[in-house]
Amino acid sequence: MTDTRMNESETPKPEDWAGEMGARWLSGIDRFEAMIAPIGDALLARAAVMHGERVLDLGCGGGKTSLAIAAAVGPSGSVTGIDISPDLITRARERAAAAHATNLDFECIDAAVYRPDTPFDRMVSRFGSMFFPQPVEAFLNLHACLKPGSRIDLAVWGPPRENPWMMEMISVLRRHIEVPPAVPRAPGPFAFEDTDYLTRVLGDAGFGHIEIVAYEGLQPIGGEVASPEAATDFALSSLAAGRMVEACEADLQQRVRHDLMDLFNRHHVEGRGVMMAGKAWLVSARA
């Protein structure tokens, strides 16, 4: 490690999905969605929403999952996607209009205070449920958005140590800068890595019949068939890790870029892209 340190003002702040992180996600949205598509597909297969159901898509992002759910529920069903990022909701609405999806609408609102006019039959969330400052209170509110007995299906990241796609990138950064230690259970991608904690949060919010299964597989960093260079650009411009180095001096940024390129070269598979292992929890419960 060099003797370069991040001062307190450079320490990564909590992820601001209404602002900076929403904009970052939008800037690399196609690559983001391609990277997590295998997990999203597994989530939707497990959820198995049915024709005619009215579904809430929590943390819908750019609406890719919402569109897939809308196709599954058909014209007799409907989907409402909610997200705190105005940038992502704008993109989601554009996509829905382009797809002529008449059974789909979006609202830019904090899920912790959202209340629909009519309760939903189902709730689905692909990596949109881990960022609540007060998760029990937020899920209590979401419980009130659902009909009694309604099923929820969530995808959340498993433990960081079991997600090499993240940890190997962090290891690269630690050669050059001091990376703040993760705070267990803090709002963020790995807030629900501990399944006992996740079960307790859902249980305290009134959910029962909680089942959690593991998803493990390779995912394409930077999207399908991305080159190591493209994956590096994606990591530094769109992932939260990029925030840790963008305030550093130019030569340090170049050293980080070089080492990330080396990492991604080692994981590059011709015709597939930069394939790195990930683990998520697929969660179902009843309101």
Overview of this structure, please?
The protein has 287 residues and is of the alpha/beta class. The protein has a single domain (9-286), classed as Vaccinia Virus protein VP39 (Rossmann fold, 3-Layer(aba) Sandwich). It has nine helices and eight strands. Strands 1, 2, 3, 4, 5, 6, 7 and 8 form an eight-stranded mixed beta sheet that branches. α1 packs parallel to α4 (86-98) and α8 packs across α9 (250-266). It starts with 19 loop residues before the first helix and ends with a strand. Residues 1-14 have low confidence and may be disordered.
Helix and strand topology:
Blueprint: H1 20-27, H2 29-47, E1 54-58, H3 64-73, E2 78-83, H4 86-98, E3 104-108, E4 120-126, H5 135-144, E5 146-157, H6 164-174, H7 195-204, E6 208-221, H8 228-237, H9 250-266, E7 268-269, E8 273-286
Parallel strand pairs: 1-2, 1-4, 2-3, 4-5
Antiparallel strand pairs: 5-8, 6-8, 7-8
